[in-house]
Specification:
This protein is an alpha+beta fold and 446 residues long. It has helices at residues 25-38, 51-81, 135-148, 222-226, 255-262, 270-304, 311-321, 328-354, 361-378, 386-397, 401-422, 433-445, and strands at 2-9, 12-20, 86-92, 104-113, 126-132, 152-154, 162-170, 184-189, 207-211, 237-248, 426-432. The strands form three sheets. Strands 6, 7, 8, 9 and 10 form a five-stranded antiparallel beta sheet that branches. Strand 1 and strand 2 (12-20) form a beta hairpin. Helix 6 (270-304) crosses helix 11 (401-422), helix 7 (311-321) packs across helix 8 and helix 9 packs across helix 10 (386-397).
Length: 446
């Protein structure tokens, strides 16, 4: 057996494998013996079928099978040993049916090579945005926290956050209370209503008349909340008399509130809470700004790094891989659509090589671990035995290929950022959170 490689065009070579019959004949002969020992052929005892019959039926398929095994193994090993930077897969050149009377066989494979990627990062500099929360945004966050942890309290007037206790009377044709109908007691929130404006601003003892079918929103479980079967629900107009109004008041800014929203004894004043919000935003926004900085660098490289590709061979590969017959025009379209992704992957690979970046299984495991712990803490689960519980969940969580790929990409982006920063490719720039969101939206429109 002999393997050689020769260049035939720019970024295209041919690997030639010459096999001698002796490379596969012993394996075929051994398999034929096994087949003979177990073959059941009418007229012959088991194990005594003439070898000629066995060869006639099985020898040629076995030769093809052994040849394919050897070709696959040796070709892959050659690519690894010679560090062939290949695009796609080797394409076997078609040949006539093999003549097994010959002693030597030649097989050829077309190879599409990845182009050289010349990354010149010395003069490239992109913004690394330092995102600052506006104070009015912090005001809104604090107000939302107070609303979320507030408690119901009696109020005089219905507002958008109110809960109403009421009695409902069915009206007759003259819009008068039907004394023969039972009074229906009901409790609902303004959010449960179809037309909220009919109730907002009303006070205790006020009445609202309207068709029952127009009272509650679809999300309100009427039958369950009223304790009635569908057949017993009012069919016409009703009068709703307000007995009691409660609304969710804002939580007081005390230690109990602080402990609920950020954890026990982490802050003890509004000023400390606002600082905490800024710090947490910096952590989240910091990651976002890092990924944005890397994106801007990658966009620059995608626009400026020139690459050539063995187009004809790649078009041939596309058509061969297609499950359905594909025209040259269709293959050309697929080729053009795939180029941006291919260019991005080659640039990313070259950066990983240049900076010696590797993403390990242990690093990915730790990210999964920390993400799960953070989720548990958000749900308020106790810290006791949390580490042990999370560690027990990790093997199952890491079976999700999509999540594994996502975590791997995040780690790669983080490492690219660190290396770009060390290389002097970023310039810090202060902007507001609103401005940062606008930049993202504009980039996503491209």
């Amino acid at each position: 057996m002999n393997i050689s490689q020769s260049d035939v065009a720019n970024l295209q070579s041919v690997i030639t494998i010459q096999l001698d019959k002796s490379d596969f004949a012993p394996q075929v002969a051994e398999t034929l013996k096994k087949y003979r020992s177990t073959a059941n052929v009418p007229g012959f005892r088991k194990g005594h079928v003439p070898m000629g019959l066995i060869k006639k039926q099985y020898e040629k398929p076995l030769m093809y099978e052994e040849i394919n095994k050897i070709l696959g193994k040796e070709l892959n090993q050659f690519l690894v040993d010679n560090e062939v930077n290949m695009l796609g897969e080797p394409i076997a050149r078609t040949k006539d049916e093999l003549n097994f009377d010959e002693d030597q066989f030649t097989f050829e494979f077309d190879i599409a090579h990845a182009p050289e990627v010349d990354l010149n990062l010395d003069s490239v500099q992109k913004p690394h945005y330092q995102i600052q929360l506006e104070e009015d945004t912090v005001d809104n966050i604090v107000n939302d926290m107070r609303k979320s942890f507030g408690e119901l309290q009696a109020v005089d007037t219905v507002d958008e956050r109110a809960t109403i206790d009421a009695v409902m009377h069915v009206l007759n044709e003259d819009d008068e209370i039907n004394e023969k109908q039972d009074v229906i007691h009901v409790k609902f929130s303004v959010a449960d209503l179809q037309d909220k404006d009919k109730f907002i601003g009303k006070k205790v003892d006020d009445r609202v008349q309207l068709p029952f079918a127009e009272l509650f929103a679809e999300s309100f479980d009427v039958e369950n909340e009223l304790g009635l079967d569908e057949a017993d629900l009012p069919k016409g107009k009703v009068s709703v008399k307000i007995d009691k109004i409660e609304s969710m008041g804002d939580a007081e800014m005390n230690q109990e509130f602080f402990d609920k929203v950020v954890g026990k004894d982490k802050v003890s004043s509004e000023e400390e809470l606002r600082n905490f919000i800024h710090e947490e935003n910096s952590k989240i926004a910091g990651r976002d700004s890092q990924f944005m900085a890397v994106r801007l660098m990658m966009d620059h490289l995608m626009e400026n790094v020139e690459m050539e590709f063995p187009k004809d061979l790649l078009l041939k590969t596309i058509r061969m891989r297609s499950e359905q017959e594909m025209s040259e025009e269709e293959a050309e379209k697929v080729y053009e659509q795939s180029l941006p992704g291919l260019r991005y992957q080659l640039i990313e690979n070259e950066l990983s090589k240049k900076f010696n970046i590797q993403v390990t299984q242990e690093e990915m495991k730790e990210v999964f671990r920390q993400n799960t712990i953070n989720q548990f803490r958000q749900y308020g689960l106790p810290e006791e035995n949390m580490d042990e519980m999370v560690d027990g969940m990790l093997p199952r969580l890491m079976e999700n290929e999509g999540e594994m790929r996502k975590v791997g990409e995040q780690l790669l982006m983080t490492k690219l950022f660190d290396n770009f920063e060390q290389n002097g490719n970023f310039e810090k720039k202060n902007i507001s959170n609103t401005e940062f969101v606008e930049i993202i939206e504009n980039l996503n429109k491209k």
